[in-house]
Write a structure and sequence with these properties.
CATH topology of the largest domain: Quinone Oxidoreductase, Chain A, domain 1
CATH architecture of the largest domain: Alpha-Beta Complex
Largest sheet: 7 strands, mixed
Order of helices and strands: EEEHEEEEHEEHEHHEHEHEHEHEHEHEHE
Strand content: 25-35%
Structural class: alpha/beta
Shape: globular
CATH superfamily of the largest domain: Medium-chain alcohol dehydrogenases, catalytic domain
Radius of gyration: 20 Å
Helix content: 25-40%
CATH class of the largest domain: Alpha Beta
């Protein structure tokens, strides 16, 4: 089959790769009908070294079940399923707590050990605990929004949950990429009355406002912090959704949080150490977050997608076939596109 292989920074190729097969009795194989490029895919696109090892990319997908292992019990051939970005057994102590990204038998798609889903098909380890059967056909009009349940919508929701967003709260969203935009949806859905999007790209700001953002802050650094405080009576916001992963974005998140506020961080950190230890300590700020257990959130978010109450699929502003995936990476890296949908 064909798949998207990244060899080094900027070196993305569509090549023939081994067909996925059942390797364990708990595996399934799905034919990929929709995949996409994630903002986190851009980090290796900028930094991957040849010695790091080539990998079939992609950790977000919808597909149709084509094969199942002997121990798979909840799936059948022909099911339309969403594939979360992490695989999990669904039975360990952490899965029972709704934290599938910490599954003791789990892992992530799109690395040298586990091939990803920007391809024609993909093997799913721990299929029963990973895949979620969708009550729609493979070409349903809601496919773009359903695809966001594999990562970005669930990740934006995770940031909001960790930051304790609720009715009447004020929220700042740091980052105007697909996760940040889904964070705006999540904050609005959870009842926030003030949602400040912190970004500077006009197309994204426009979409954020349509999703529910009440204010826009396009400044950066100290100027951004001052502007947020001006919008919040000088105190800062109750909740901050940090959706970038850089030191500056984390520092900004801590600075714009009011004393006693909370930061939900879902941007993949690009440094070992987390900045802002002293300001967060002296402001009594709660900081949490990590890889979102999106599998746990599908039950809650799916009805809102199916009934049209939220439309996270609008973050996709470009659709490509498999041959055009390398140009999709370039477009996202050059900020020509928010998020690229792939139809293998």
């Amino acid at each position: 089959m064909r798949g998207t292989v990244m060899y080094a920074a900027g070196d993305v190729r569509i090549e023939n790769v081994p067909d996925p097969t059942i390797q364990e009795p708990t595996d399934a194989v799905i034919r990929v009908t929709r995949a996409c490029i994630c903002g986190s895919d851009l980090w290796p696109y900028k930094t991957l070294q040849p010695d790091d090892g080539a990998r079939v990319m992609g950790h977000e997908a919808i597909g149709v079940v084509e094969e199942i292992g002997a121990d798979v019990r909840t799936l059948k051939i022909g099911d339309v399923v969403v594939m979360p970005f992490a695989f999990s057994d669904g039975t360990c102590i952490f899965c029972d707590e709704g934290l599938q990204t910490e599954c003791v038998h789990g892992g992530f798609f799109g690395n040298p050990e586990v091939p990803g889903a920007q391809s024609e098909a993909v093997r799913i380890p721990q299929a029963d605990g990973t895949l979620y059967v969708l009550p729609v056909g493979e070409d349903d009009a809601l496919m773009p929004s359903l695809l966001t349940l594999s990562d970005v919508m669930g990740t934006g929701h995770h940031a909001a949950v960790v930051a304790k967003v609720g009715p009447g709260k004020s929220v700042a969203v740091v980052g105007d990429g697909a996760v940040g935009l889904c964070g705006v949806i999540a904050a609005k859905r959870l009842g926030a009355v003030q949602i400040i999007i912190m970004g500077r790209h006009q197309d994204r700001i426009t979409l954020a406002r349509e999703f529910g953002a009440t204010d826009v802050v396009s400044e950066r650094g100290p100027e951004a912090v001052e502007r947020v405080k001006e919008l919040t009576d000088g105190y800062g916001v109750d909740a901050v959704l940090e959706c970038v992963g850089l030191d500056q974005s984390m520092e900004t998140a801590i600075e714009v949080a009011r004393p006693g506020g909370a930061v939900g961080r879902v941007g993949v950190p690009q440094d070992e150490l987390m900045p802002g230890a002293q300001p967060s300590f002296f402001k009594n700020i709660t900081i949490g977050g990590g890889p979102a257990p999106v599998r746990a959130y599908i039950d809650e978010l799916l009805p809102d997608v199916l009934e049209g109450r939220i439309e996270p699929g609008r973050v996709f502003d470009r659709t490509v076939d498999l041959d055009s995936v390398p140009d999709g990476y370039r477009a996202m890296n050059d900020r020509e596109s928010i998020k690229v949908l792939v139809r293998p």
